[in-house]
Design goal:
2 copies of one chain form a homodimer. By secondary structure, the first copy, chain A, is mainly α. Helices cover 72% and strands 5% of the residues of chain A. Chain A starts with a helix and ends with a strand. Chain A binds a DNA duplex through residues 2-4, 27-29, 37-41, 43-44, 59-62.
Amino acid sequence: MSQMQNVERQLREMILGLEIGPGEKLTERWIEGRFGASRTPVRAALLRLETEGLVGRDGRGWTVSPINLAELEQIAVYREAVEVAALRLTCMHADGNAIDVIEAMLDSCDQNTPREEWHRVGMDFHIELARLSGNEFLFRAVRDAMTRLSRARWLEVRDEAALGRAWAEHRAILAATRLGEADEAARRLSAHISGSRDRLVTSLANDRRGLRARGFAVVAA
Amino acid sequence: MSQMQNVERQLREMILGLEIGPGEKLTERWIEGRFGASRTPVRAALLRLETEGLVGRDGRGWTVSPINLAELEQIAVYREAVEVAALRLTCMHADGNAIDVIEAMLDSCDQNTPREEWHRVGMDFHIELARLSGNEFLFRAVRDAMTRLSRARWLEVRDEAALGRAWAEHRAILAATRLGEADEAARRLSAHISGSRDRLVTSLANDRRGLRARGFAVVAA
DNA sequence: GATACCGCTTTGGTATCCCAAAATGGTATC
DNA sequence: GATACCATTTTGGGATACCAAAGCGGTATC
């Protein structure tokens, strides 16, 4: 694989994995040294990650995008629009087998599963569900939105019960979709996303002080 | 302004203005010479335009994205989702003054207005309407979708009557929005986008042979 | 005349160098 | 001790040099 894609992938993983904290300054030369590549692939990677919203410009220079609570709320609204649209499309030509695959993803998580895996599967549920719509743009929109939400969701304090409720909601959405009950599925998905947003923003707003103490820039709503 | 942004802007204009045809091959060195910049800003511009969907990779090497009828249909579905969501948000806090500004844009076009201007205003109507939602992500989604549609709409054969109908639909959408009648506004917007998509795809499919003869790659649905 | 093969050219990927501007840090001054 | 100022360093933007691989053309062979 080319260096360009390597630097991009590794840097993205470091940012999403919070190995580089939200708000931290980045220099092209540090990245260059860190990954053993020259500046050309480094700059390509930064340009890409900029369009994903993971890094941004800070005057001259680069910064890992801070967690922005106002932005998280806007993303949730955006998600609701595109995910519901995708789900309604899917309901019109529901494919039981494809839905089984997604349900199996949910089933693969139990109390022994590491939190990291729950986190990943929770995102993939929404992404794979959107993919079933067959609409590339709705799919990409959902995938990109989930990428932007990823770090915040990772910082969210979620108890066992909340995870269980989310999984139940996921299953209910799948069930309605399987039956082609578009309105029911859409209503449940909307509620799920709204609730998810409220818990997320509330949790981060409450932890804001602690997060900042850990060096994570969290911008208020 | 930096070279990087210059090359990006000029190259985008050449592509959107069809001075470089859909499907044409691009070499970094040709662009370099054409705009008097070195490969570093050229590369940055190509990476940016790639995320906008205006250029793509063709193995090694770059190609101006062809007009893809299947993609146009998918974009229309995507547009409908995000534009309707944005419009519903706007209806909840309709600002008469802001709507006046958009209506004035429509008014600025009359029979003496060059086709190019009608084209631009027709896009800006949707973009500015989405901006009123106050949701940055819905706004960007609409703006990016319109950018992707731009070349196709420019190739579309539109008679005076069709333009007049489109403008009437625009005004009706604004009127309903001003009154806060979200359902009515949403219904009219959906119909407008659907009709627009059908006319666009039909027109291009009919002209496909002629467009290809002009050197424009048009991929079937 | 078609085709397989070989060498030259072109091209994107990468590394490196240069430069102007911005950040940094130390110092002198009040 | 605070602050204004200047020298130095650092940094991103740009230009260029180099390389491997893909593309292209011509030629020899059947």
